[in-house]
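Supplementary notes for students who missed Thursday's class. We covered one full example, reproduced here. Read the sequence, then the structure, then the short commentary at the end.
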Amino acid sequence: MVFIFGINGVAGINVINFINVNAAINTAQKQETMNSSVPLTKYGAELLKAELHQLKTKERRIVIDAIAEARSHGDLSENAEYDAAKERQAFVEGRIAELEGKLGAAQVIDPVTLDAEGRVVFAATVDLEDLDNGLKVTYQIVGLDEADLKLNKVSVTSPIARALIGKYAGDVVEVQAPSGPREYEILEVRYI
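Structure (token representation):
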């Protein structure tokens, strides 16, 4: 029993029950996260698989060799090379676990096989015209891990993607941009 002293006196809290409740909440949250699917385009899944392969076959071996080399220098308590190699190992192993989790929960969508009847959906490529300045732009709506604005790939969670999802060519959407609201007309929706 732990006692907490407050303004009105002493209140007893059973620490074991407190820990058990928190453990149950954390377990439920982890299960919810594990059960949720991660949307990825076919190309995005291939990129993650390639990164995972690189980490498992090359990076892991490099880190193991670096740790062995650092150990050969003797005293590990003051060995900066050993500490750096162990930190790199933790990063590599963490990234491997993260990628395996994402790929295990992935819902891979090949845009070529989509039949959304002209509607903007995940993995669609959308041609837009900015109604304020007439500029035309093309975006593909992709998963969070594959988003890259330089390649015109926007995350499904981005403001522009959220505004576009469910709309059709000819529709006008308003996007809440950092510089203020912007209006776009959807010119064409493609599944490529």
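Commentary. The radius of gyration is 25 Å. The chain is about 45% helix and 25% strand. If anything here is unclear, bring it to office hours.
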